[in-house]
Amino acid sequence: MRIPAVLARSRRERGSLARQLLGLQALVLVVVVLALGWTAVADARGAVEDRAANQARSIAETIADSPLVREAVVEPDPTAVLQPYVEQVRADTATSFITVMAPDRTRFTHPDPEQIGKPFRGSIDRALRGTTFTETYSGTLGPSVRAVAPIFAVGSSSDVVALVSVGITVTAIGDDVAAALPGVLGVAVAVLAVGALGSWLISRRLRRQTHGLGAQPLARMLEYYDAVLHAVREGLLLLDGDRRVQLVNDEARRLLGLEGDVAGRHVTELGLSPELAGTLSQQRLAVDEVHVSGDRVLVVSQMPATPKGRSVGAVVTLRDHTDLQALTGELDSVRAFAESLRSQAHEAANRLHTTVSLVELGRTEEAVEFATAELAVAQRLTDRVVEAVEEPVLAALLLGKAATAHERGVTLEIDPATSVGATGIPGGDLVTVVGNLLDNAIDAALAGDPPREVQLSLWQADGRLELRVEDTGPGVDDPDQVFRRGWTTKATGQGLGLALVAQAVKRNGGTVSVRPGPGAEFAVSLPVRTAVPS
Which spans of this chain does the record mark as coiled coil (predicted)? Predict the structure, then answer.
């Protein structure tokens, strides 16, 4: 199924994650704004009530301290003097009522003249004790925030002769709160609008990044992709723009020998070969490049990710060609051996024609001598190799390389002291080591001056297989780099043969060294895995 079809079906199954998130954000935003608005209104009401209580207290204390009031309350008719005065003050201060009363609660003043002379409703005990206080109480004008202050006799600070109460009704307080509501509502609406715009922008960006998928389809796709990454038999490595690992599947871990959590680590910190680490560190395209990493031959492809021309990382794929490379080496050896047999057959046909011609000419003795001399040389080489080397694959390889060297004008001399029994070393690794060393030696000898020779020595000692290959070529300039992938002295070489030699030697727990020359010499020492026959 194509990816667009999967995305379309996932969108139909349920609303996109962006849409769900937008709905959730809108709900949370409305709840938060309502809560904040309620809190703001409550705070505003509390502030208005506090302001009203402080205002009432200040007015009550001011009236109680007025000499006019203190003198009038002891007059025979206090109302005649106090009613006009306190009503003027009430109008000037925008309070709901100002009541001056006797200690027994009898009102001297009131906004409603009919209430004058009637008892005051509310608490006065603390005021009778000389203390001003505030309270909320329902009187004749309804619920109000009021302050009650004592009026002391002229010349006294403890003799309470009357009381004054100043109040602001809850209705008036509500009007003040209502006046503050437009500002509170305006702020709430502004916050809601800004929050809604921000949520919409976030939702739009999220919808674009998630391709309009919902949470469940995203989770399902993640499970699918995770299963695919673990099941695929090709190594996959995802790198970010800083060349740090973002994802690595099981096969890539196996091929690169990675352990533990490597996410976030730079490619140079993974323990890779310098050549492979250098390739992964570069922002470049790589297609089927062969690299040696540890004991494996890897085919590496790298595709940089550059959306809109901006580098954000790379996708790296890895394929294991270790076994294929070994089989290729063995196949090359068999092919070379077959070519040498074909050449020998051609030479044998020429020798046979020559021998027959000598017989026809009556030169019988010369014909016998010519035929037996050529056969003796070939037979001596074959007998020596077969007797000295018990490993059949290695014996066939040496005979093939000897014939190949002869065809190319190079003499391959096998040390008469060569003796190799059963080693237990895998035949493929022996072919890789000996075949590549001999091929390089023959090529090097051809680049030198005559006589062009290659010397091979093989022997076992102290439980190890020792190998020496020496040529008459010009030698190597940089012995420290000869086993690095890419190093070669050939105009068209890949520089892989000696790297494979070093890999095979390391895999079998051996060592390899080189003497730079002129006339380079390679020495290999490998531990045998079976007892050497006595």
Answer: none
